[in-house]
Amino acid sequence: MAPIGEIDTFIVDVPTIRPHVLAMTTMRHQSIVLVRIRDADGIEGVGEGTTIGGLSYGEESPESIKLAIDTYIAPILKTCDPTRVGLAMATIGKSVAGNHIAKCAVETALLDMAGRRLGIPVSELIGGGRVRDRLPVAWTLASGDTGRDIEEAERVLTARRHRIFKLKIGKHAVRDDVAHVAEIKRAIGDRGSVRVDVNQHWSEAQADLGMRMLQDAGVDLVEQPVRRGDISAMARLSAKHIIPLMADEALHGPLDAFAIASRAGARIFAVKIAQSGGLLPAHAVATIAQAAGVGLYGGTMLEAGVGTAASAHLCATLPSLEWGTELFGPLLLTEEILAEPLRYADFELEVPDGPGLGVTLDADRVDFYRRDRVAPRLHAVSERS
Ligand SMILES: O=C(O)C[C@H]1C=CC(=O)O1
Ligand SMILES: [Mn+2]
Prior knowledge:
alpha/beta; Enolase-like, domain 1; TIM Barrel; 2 domains; 3-stranded antiparallel β-sheet; 13 helices; about 20% strand; binds [(2S)-5-oxo-2,5-dihydrofuran-2-yl]acetic acid; binds manganese (II) ion
């Protein structure tokens, strides 16, 4: 085996194309954590660990993801055989609890290296390999303004880029949020599927009212209406309403998947590689869902190109992906960090088919946007002094 030579982690801050208004925060930029691993033979892999809105979405922040990798994971990884991805991640897991997004970034980079070494796409290293080459992709309407959301929906429908729409609600009174959603659904009609994500902001009573009204408005699903730990409420809501409930924040890997599936807490799972702790545990989440008759959806943490490609490889291995995906992260950012962007066409994302993740970073752009960059002029000054 060629041992690991170098592990480089850095945060890249990229503006969003417009404010992205969620119940817990308004995003104006995305902070992407990238990890680049190189073995002694010079084979390189990249991974991404990205969350939403600093610490407002979950327990890991961009800064904590970088710190967990640099201080705790990297020293262990340097003792591991990088060709044995599952074993390396299990070794890390013995000394590092939680920190799923950091683990996802590292596992992604190891899988990218493994695929490049073997000359095959990452999807061929997961489960039984790839079963699809394209993935339906939703778009999130979250400008904070109903009229602007409708214009945006019209634009992407005409461009044949998206026909599944996720609306972020939970910030306003239930009836006001539902009125906003109903107006958008009326404008879109049968041309697209409209779903909502409440990001845990409703009580069970609010969810009861909201789910009934949303069903009447023609909405197709309600994502994580109540707080993530309340599987009992999720199960009661799932049993009571025809409109299906999708689990998102409640799902942090196979153990949660088993707990929710066995208590009938959700009829759909948003499978996220970041929240699950990597592509391999995310595949286990999907396997549990499929065994339990729970529908699948490919979720996102609004990752840029590397994380989105990694999620696409995982989703490409899932035999049934009834609810499609929302792997649109790079399209929400003003800057592309890949040398060649991912391809979106005919309402779908093409899963890259080159070795590893099948994507390459645009090194100059990444250097320009990385938070710890040292401007060339400052370099020159410090070298002189
Ligand atoms: O699902 C979430 O909660 C996070 C996210 C996914 C799409 C989007 O706009 O925000
Ligand atoms: Mn969600």
